[in-house]
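does this look right to u?? 4-methylsulfanyl-2-ureido-butyric acid version
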Amino acid sequence: MSRTLVAAAAQMGPIARSDTRKAVIERLIALLGEASSRGAELVVFPELTLTTFFPRWHMTDPAEIDAFYETEMPGPETQKLFDAAKRLKIGFYLGYAELAVADGVKHRYNTSVLVDRDGKIVGKYRKIHLPGWDTPQPDMASQHLEKYYFEPGNLGFNVFETMGTRIGMAICNDRRWPETYRVMALKGSEMILVGYNTPDDHTGNFDFDSLTQFHNQLSIQAGAYQNSNWVIATAKAGHEEGSNLIGQSMIVAPSGQIVAMAVSTADEVVVAKCDLDMAKLYRKTIFDFARHREPEQYRLIVETKGPVTD
Ligand code: CDT
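got this back:
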């Protein structure tokens, strides 16, 4: 008998800077309820789900900056989301800005957690591929300052055994990098969860920017197929504080086929029943890593950190 998991991408429409955590969490709980009523066992929320996408602004006041971060998860406000999910017996992925203190030093990460159907955190991931800049760019109409607001994640790409499968996590820009999927697939993942915030003018070059939606699909579908994984990818979408964020939240099979996709840029749930054995099928055939990969021949590439420039 095949193993299945009903998964949902819970896309969110825009979050204004003035929206309270309480209001956002009410929206998340409503999305959770809808996903549950449609049979979902696992819900994927976007990157930085609890606030507007603040790296578009250059802030310097530490108190103003700190207000966008969570110092505990769950905290007093997010506990309500954990309680609702536990009541509904539904697992979830949640992206948020994390402020951690280690040895008295503050560290800021773009983070996601994976929560099981009993409301317990079973995995944590800190975004590794941080796009954008660490200082404002005078020539760019839209700023993207993730390197100013976050350190690169220090937890690696891990795979968590839960909900009858093996799940990995990534965040936004990670989905464009083949290493993201391959590292987790080599660790046995069957499903990869990704939240994102992608403005439609993110490079400032119209030739690239006009392909933003195509590149979103291309990256996710290729990552799914080449690594024999289900990918559940969820956007924060719509017109947010002057920025147009793409939607296209989607559930992609290990075949690379899109099995469900959002049709709006608002709060919207898409659901699909994922046959987990489909991941095994591709891994036993075209992507049988043990039989067909040639790691010795990849050695030079793997050891090269810097770019090849010529
Ligand atoms: N949030 C995030 O990583 N967004 C990037 C676009 C911005 S690049 C300056 C992405 O890859 O979708």
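The longest strand covers residues 91-102. idk if thats expected tbh
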